[in-house]
Design goal:
Elements (H helix, E strand, L loop, with lengths): L1 H20 L1 H12 L9 E4 L2 E5 L15 E5 L3 E4 L5 H8 L24 H14 L6 E2 L19 H4 L2 E2 L11 H9 L48 E7 L7 E2 L14 E4 L15 E4 L8 E2 L3 E2 L1
Parallel strand pairs: 3-8, 7-11
Antiparallel strand pairs: 1-4, 2-3, 4-12, 5-6, 7-9, 9-10
Helix pairs in contact: 1-2
């Protein structure tokens, strides 16, 4: 028995040493250590660190003017929610359901993605869910991480105090993905217009061709290679970043520090139920005011 225990110890030690030298193994070990998602309200998928080409090649979309290709390196892996956040999940945290679509074509309305949420609504949701799950809170406004101390959520115009929100990128609580994290997770190593190929395929997404002018239950279409559902279509997904032009090759980009020359607008990704297929491409960029609510817009979450 002692010999077996010693052998197991030695194998574990070798794996640990190799892991410290091998970035891939280190990333895997990091995932194993931090995997605390079994009891979470949100089902998460681990996305390993890596480098990819962000943006679209010339000719993919003649209308695109803000999708210049550039190399992006993400040095840390992260968890991303397997599905868009549902109305059931949102209501469990926020007590209310703001959504316009509340009758599911598939029969389970609780599994519809939450929509008609603003960017401000979502950062409140993130911190409240982190509190419930006893995680380190990501967002701080006016010196506090407690959303109850932030005051009323702005609903009619951008708010300078809320726009000055700061982020603890090392916290293990819930947050919005950066735009780079979103596209990296969407692509899953692909370079095609969509995560599954270059041609719009209704088997992977809800858009204006097949949605019947409604959102649909999450997870009813095929996932991408990471096991993420509805990365194309259903509802647009809020990202952290202020909108701006792309730069050159970058590492761990988080967007401009403040609103850019294009105005105080945040990035949304992924297309939606009422848009055509081009807006659901992996590289497509759209924008929205952070206070604005519409049934086009929902979200998914990430965690460290």
């Amino acid at each position: 028995m002692k010999k077996k225990l010693m052998l197991i110890f030695m194998i574990a030690l070798v794996i640990l040493i190799i892991g410290c030298e091998n970035p891939w193994m280190k990333d895997l070990l990091d995932k194993m250590v931090k995997d605390k998602n079994k009891e979470s309200l949100i089902s998460m998928v681990w996305i390993s660190a890596g480098t990819f080409i962000m943006g679209s090649p010339v000719g993919e979309d003649p209308l695109a003017s803000d999708e210049d290709q550039h190399q992006v390196t993400l040095t840390r892996g992260f968890y991303m929610s397997k599905y868009q956040v549902t109305q059931e999940q949102y209501q469990a945290v926020m007590v209310s359901n703001p959504s316009n679509f509340t009758t599911s074509p598939e029969g389970n309305s609780n599994k519809l993605p939450v929509e008609t949420v603003s960017w401000y609504d979502v950062i409140v949701f993130c911190n409240k869910l982190s509190i419930e799950e006893r995680l380190n809170l990501v967002y701080t406004i006016s010196g506090t991480t407690n959303p109850d101390g932030w005051g009323p959520i702005p609903t009619v115009a951008n708010d300078a105090t809320w726009d000055a929100v700061t982020v603890n990128w090392d916290a293990n609580g819930y947050r919005l993905p950066t735009e780079a994290e979103w596209e990296y997770a969407c692509r899953g190593g692909t370079t095609t217009a969509y995560s599954y190929g270059n041609t719009a395929n209704p088997d992977y997404m809800w858009y204006n061709v097949n949605s019947n002018s409604s959102t649909h239950e999450v997870g009813k279409k095929l996932p991408n290679v990471w096991g993420l559902y509805d990365m194309h279509g259903n509802v647009f997904e809020w990202c952290w970043d202020w909108y701006d032009d792309y730069g050159g090759s970058v590492t761990d980009p988080k967007g401009p520090g403040t609103s850019s020359a294009y105005g105080a607008v945040r990035v949304v990704r992924g297309g939606c139920w009422d848009n055509d297929a081009r807006n659901a491409r992996s590289a497509f960029r759209a924008i929205n005011l952070p206070w604005y609510r519409d049934d086009y817009f929902g979200f998914r979450l990430v965690r460290q």
